[in-house]
Amino acid sequence: MIAIQEVGPRDGLQNEPVRLSTAEKIAFIERLAATGLRRIEAVSFVHPERVPQMADAEAVWAGFRRASGVTYAGLVLNRRGFERARTAGVEEIHFAFGVTETFNRKNQGAAPEASFRQFAALLEEAEAAGARGRFRATLTLSVAFGCPYEGPVDEGRVVDFVRRAAEAGFDEIVLADTIGVGVPTQAARLVRRAIEATGGRVPIGVHFHNTRNTGLANVYAALEAGATVFDASVGGLGGCPFAPNATGNIATEDLVYMLEGMGVATGVDLDALIGVARWIEGKVGRRLEGMVMKAGPFRPLGAG
Amino acid sequence: MIAIQEVGPRDGLQNEPVRLSTAEKIAFIERLAATGLRRIEAVSFVHPERVPQMADAEAVWAGFRRASGVTYAGLVLNRRGFERARTAGVEEIHFAFGVTETFNRKNQGAAPEASFRQFAALLEEAEAAGARGRFRATLTLSVAFGCPYEGPVDEGRVVDFVRRAAEAGFDEIVLADTIGVGVPTQAARLVRRAIEATGGRVPIGVHFHNTRNTGLANVYAALEAGATVFDASVGGLGGCPFAPNATGNIATEDLVYMLEGMGVATGVDLDALIGVARWIEGKVGRRLEGMVMKAGPFRPLGAG
Lengths: 304, 304
What we know:
Chains A, B: Residues 2-274 form the Pyruvate carboxyltransferase domain. The structure is a homodimer. Chain A is of the alpha/beta class.
């Protein structure tokens, strides 16, 4: 059974220049849940000066109607964010850091090792306080397929963090191609090595950007290799801060089209999801990059 | 060894509303050859009233400077086109028909069976005339992954045409997803069955459109399954007559990026090819859909 992790409200909106109102963000999350999506990354608890689009995280989190069977998540990058998420009562906390020195120092002001140790310590503290059962913890390894500053990334370094993350008690580990440079053979190899490193005990997810059009090819390779969680953003919402003209996340409706076409059940109503893609396109006021929202599903015209 | 078949000057331009001058088409073909591409579909010999963009096929064919090591091809859909191509001295003739009744009747005014038999007869006649050695013959099976009128296409029907095409002496058989509805498992299965049906004696090619963003995923699956020829159009030039807002062929530079990233040598200079994509984008006057032409290759910024 695979899972789609919708990241439009977080990774998507965070990389759009326009700012949505709190009410619009809440409506967005509710519309997504109504399509059958079962996992939604709703907010991030990051510094409001660094990411002004997420400054109202607490209000958004408190504001949306919970849909039955849907898990909502919040992203955190450090102790302060973790505490905010815990205070808000977030049931699934997404930790993330970049696996290269330069990227993580620029983005989180810390070495990758320091970020990892801080996250592991937060899980330990929660465990000691008897609170570890109150939330699910995922870890995203950013720039695992390539770093905008350092270039190619040593796979051994990535796999080592995967192994240690499993040991530290993360419930899920996500390999992220933050800048969209990955290719399918690389995706397959990294996923296989991650599964080996964790003895298959921890679900391995993938987070692909379609910056160079390889996003769904990487999904297919990762799926074949055993990945079970797929991040995507409705409409392909978001962008790439390292390539101004480029697209961001793979589009959720394109992912759903491909998976369903291959007989992989997603539980998502594709027409409803296309409707949300068009709705949010109107809100952000630019042409989104998703393809199925333009071409439509495969509906024969008839012989007429 | 794989081959990229550049179809921008034919499938690309044919589906762009703008009309280029003969001199511009010639310059386009010459620029493509200078990037290291070794196979270029340069023109189609079709009725000028049906495809006005190709009305100057003979003049284009006669006009471009031949680059060493490059094979240029012309598309034909019937006996008249074949005769024009032979008169022009085309060394690689691309035959094509749609495998469904409705599609082929609407596009070529004939049943698929009739088109196939006519093509096979043309090869036989050339053989009898001692002229078969003067041209290479490829056969493209259009709408092999789905028909805009009839919907899903029976794979057995496609595979049967593949087997008969090999028996009829075609040098290469191309499975075309003309409307961009295919998914990777389907691509892998069709390619495997085509190779089985021909006993591996005839190269199997694939022609994917990226209409629903599955183009490169299908390439990867087809490559793994044993396909050796990949059609693509620089910049993703072209469109989809059945989905007005949708993109057409996969972009050659995106294909090159992915293949080279996987260690599959293409012989193409990616930067030069991006240059041609931007040049032709200026000529057609609309934003093309290729991604690597916007994001660029993977070039780290340095730690600075």
